[in-house]
């Protein structure tokens, strides 16, 4: 018997998620494999309460795939499935701590059961991850089968956010925002890694905050917006990441190609934890770190910023830059206001992540708040 839900967020979002997966997922399966709102609600409810429990002193990290065992590829199945309850989720959570391993959950006529584990899930399968106490993310695997999963909804206590994949501003920087929203990238049709997305994840991972400035290659105007001398200049310019990307057509079959790129991205992400800005070209050549942003004397102080978040119901608004956050946000807004071909990525210590670009149509700095897409 399916238990009544007591977490309000589960009730609020389950209907929208049912509609999403009817439209986007399980299209190759028969109707018996669709996801009723009541089942999604039960899964979210049990996972939320499980997230608040400790098991032997540890807070649980849980990943659940909502998929029937008969369509799973090479699953590990329990002889006797167990009911989906907070208790069983917490007890089984140590088995799915490692990436790409999920508890398999499906429903019968009158119950929802944990039937085993699965590591190879189909495209668009609903995945729920318990990130921390009270923080849940609903996502699905990309149709291409690689890269970060596409986030659909984020629930944090009484806050429920549904990702809006029709968000404004995609044409201003499609190779980052469109990728995070699960859109196809015309500029990277055959590349297995979106470098900007991985850089954003690496910056956020160290939880110390960071500012990354991406400037046009073979140009030096960006130096007019930096205080000199720069604390740490890379000489010669470090092109390890750029070289690997350029070698993709030749090295695409090498097993270590992707892992080498991710290692370098982690290294660069680490430098963003150092006070000041890390500077790279848009070709991913590493130029400097620990740099201080200063207003170009030829330009005025950034007056206002257009702030948006890809969330259903969110309306873009024009705000004073001081409302964006601390000194990193102010520096990023000013830098993009002065250097309009550049882009700035800002990670806050509290997990907020913002991308700053110049909006040519509106002639204003556009701040895209995208942390909901990076969880």
Automatic annotation (TrEMBL):
InterPro entries per record: DACNV
Domain Probable sensor: 36-119
Protein name in the entry: Probable sensor domain-containing protein
Annotated source species: Olivibacter ginsenosidimutans
């Amino acid at each position: 018997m399916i238990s009544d839900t007591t977490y309000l967020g589960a009730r609020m979002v389950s209907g929208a998620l049912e509609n999403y997966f009817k439209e986007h997922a399980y299209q190759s399966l028969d109707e018996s494999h669709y996801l009723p709102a009541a089942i999604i609600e039960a899964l979210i409810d049990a996972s939320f309460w499980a997230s608040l429990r400790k098991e032997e002193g540890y807070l649980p990290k849980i990943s659940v795939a909502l998929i029937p065992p008969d369509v799973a590829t090479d699953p590990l199945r329990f002889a006797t499935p167990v009911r989906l309850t907070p208790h069983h989720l917490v007890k089984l959570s140590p088995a799915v701590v490692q990436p790409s391993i999920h508890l398999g959950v499906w429903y019968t006529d009158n119950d929802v059961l944990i039937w085993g584990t699965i590591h190879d899930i189909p495209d668009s399968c609903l995945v729920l991850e318990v990130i921390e106490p009270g923080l849940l993310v609903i996502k699905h695997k990309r149709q291409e089968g690689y890269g970060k999963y596409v986030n659909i909804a984020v629930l944090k206590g009484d806050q429920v956010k549904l990702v809006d994949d029709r968000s404004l501003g995609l044409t201003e920087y499609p190779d980052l925002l469109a990728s995070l929203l699960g859109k196809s990238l015309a500029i990277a049709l055959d590349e297995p890694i979106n470098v900007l997305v991985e850089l954003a994840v690496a910056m956020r991972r160290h939880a110390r905050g960071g500012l990354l400035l991406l400037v046009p290659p073979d140009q030096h105007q960006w130096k007019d917006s930096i205080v000199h001398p720069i604390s740490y200049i890379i000489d010669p310019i470090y092109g390890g990441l750029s070289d690997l990307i350029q070698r993709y057509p030749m090295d695409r079959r090498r097993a270590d190609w992707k892992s080498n790129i991710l290692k370098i991205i982690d290294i660069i992400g680490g430098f963003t934890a150092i006070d000041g800005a890390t500077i790279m070209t848009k070709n991913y050549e590493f130029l400097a770190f620990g740099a201080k942003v200063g207003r170009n004397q030829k330009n005025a102080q950034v007056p206002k910023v257009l702030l948006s978040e890809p969330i259903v119901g969110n309306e873009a608004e024009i705000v004073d830059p001081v409302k964006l956050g601390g000194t990193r946000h102010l520096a990023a807004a000013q830098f993009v206001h002065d250097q309009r071909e550049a882009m700035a990525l800002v990670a806050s210590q509290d997990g907020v992540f913002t991308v700053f670009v110049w909006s040519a149509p509106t002639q204003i700095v556009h701040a895209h708040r995208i942390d909901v897409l990076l969880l």
